[in-house]
Amino acid sequence: MHPKIYTQIKHLYGITQKGEIIKKGEQLKEFKSISDAWLTVNEKGYISGFGTMDNLPESNFEEINCMNKMVLPAFIDSHTHLIHAKSREDEFVARIKGMSYEEIANMGGGILNSAKALNECSEDELFRSSFIRLQRAIESGTGGIEIKSGYGLTVSGELKMLRVAQRLKSVSPIPVKVTFLGAHAFPGTGTEIQETYISEIIDEMLPVIGKEGLADYIDVFCEKNYFSVEQMERILDAGARYNLKPKVHVNQFNAIGGVQSAVNKNAVSVDHLELLEDGDIKALKNSETIPVALPACSFFLNIPYTPSERILKNNLALALATDYNPGSSPCLSMPFVVSLACIYMKMLPEEAFNAATLNGAAALQISDSYGSIEVGKKGNFILTKSLSSINYLPYSFTENWIEKMVLS
Q1: Of 150, 208, 155, 151, which Cα lies nearest the Cα of 180?
Q2: For an engineered disulfide with 181, which of 77, 150, 160, 296 has Cβ 3.0 to 4.6 Å away?
Q3: Which of 392-401's residues contact partners 24+ apart within 8 Å by CB, and which partners?
Q4: What is the 3 state secondary structure string of the chain?
Q5: Which pLDDT tens digit goes with each residue over 276-310?
């Protein structure tokens, strides 16, 4: 690519120092910026310099004038269920009529509904529909993404999803991390079915995943009526034999001890945390595990929001992600997630942007190259339209304020 210099940037946001790969507690309030700025991206797509216009270097780089516009790091969406075969708007209407998410699931809806549709869908069909969603996510400001399996619930279905995810990774202009979530739900009820399915995960799915390198992480939905803490531990231990690091669903509807267990298993992140007990906070304070909040899910299901204030007051990190999925968060927009975090979780805009960029990258273990503006990191950022301030972005929660995604 031809090297470029972006000049007269109104505000250049999200600047970090070398080695700053995550922000915790009070640190999230600093979304460092400089005004009247320039920024260069070299021929290899890496940020090679930035500063103020009174120190503009001489160069033969292609110039892009950014008068009255802002630059900030692209969002990193660390929790999505991007691959699925069918939307679930009928369940949306059922909730309007008074049914809960759990009641719908108990009647064969929810994840089982998606699993049925997915197993009837070809790999090529899944790839085409998921690629369209990936493009929509990028247009909404996402510059890095995680993609889970979990709607197969059969050996062939889960492997099909992971192979689609790898195909997406091979053509994606943004970094993609893949998570194996075979333990998303049980394909039926009863102890025998549960044990049979766990054996399929451990003895049939994981060996193929390990041999073909189909995933980076392993996930389990640890929740009442889904997977118990003991079942989660068995599955995570099996995943560890194939170097799959845990990133797990915990504390969405109930706190059953999943956070402490995940921390003990050195989980990269614990995601959801709509309910958070004192023991969970204590466990997280003694770990490197990153809490991840999913406010679009809380908004859509009308359930509590992750208590960000408690998390940050205890000097913990916090990341934000969409939880994009067809049942509980049909939202690919990280800008909307940032707005929800400000409105309902009472996060300052600076806190929300740090959680959605640098800390999102940390939750995917890519913050050495993505998630902030820093010399040596990839030129992966958003150029906004002509706007007044960083506070305007979450304030104007339905406006498309992105002029261009710069992906190197």
Answers
A1: 150
A2: 150
A3: 393/335, 393/338, 393/349, 394/335, 394/338, 394/339, 394/341, 394/342, 394/343, 394/349, 394/352, 395/339, 395/342, 397/335, 397/336, 397/339, 397/343, 401/335
A4: CCCEEEEEEEEEECECCCCCCCCEHHHHHCCCEEEEEEEEECCCCEEEEEEEHHHCCCCCCEEEECCCEEEEECEEECCECCCCCCCCHHHHHHHHCCCCHHHHHHCCCCHHHHHHHHHCCCHHHHHHHHHHHHHHHHHCCEEEEEEECCCCCCHHHHHHHHHHHHHHHHHCCCCEEEEEEEECCCCCCCHHHHHHHHHHHHHHHHHHHHHHCCCCEEEEEECCCCECHHHHHHHHHHHHCCCCEEEEEECCCCCCCHHHHHHHCCCCEEEECCCCCHHHHHHHHCCCCEEEECHHHHHHHCCCCCCHHHHHHCCCECEECCCEECCCECCCCHHHHHHHHHHHCCCCHHHHHHHHCHHHHHCCCCCCCCCCECCCCECEEEEEEECCCCCHHHHCCCCCCEEEEEEC
A5: 999 999 999 989 999 999 999 999 999 999 999 99
- Please answer whether residues 293 and 341 qualify as being in contact, where contact means their C-beta atoms are separated by less than 8 angstroms: yes
Question: So what's the pLDDT on residue 331?
Answer: 98
Which residue's structure tokens are 């940037």? Answer: 9
Nearest by Cα to 5 from 94, 52, 55, 65: 65
Q: For 214-250, what is each residue's pLDDT tens digit? A: 999 999 999 999 999 999 999 999 999 999 999 999 9
Q: pLDDT tens digits for 347-366? A: 999 999 999 999 999 999 99
pLDDT at 105: 78
In whole angstroms, what is the distance from residue 108 CA to residue 103 CA? 9
Identity of the amino acid at 108? G
Note whether 180 and 209 are within 8 A (CB).
Answer: yes
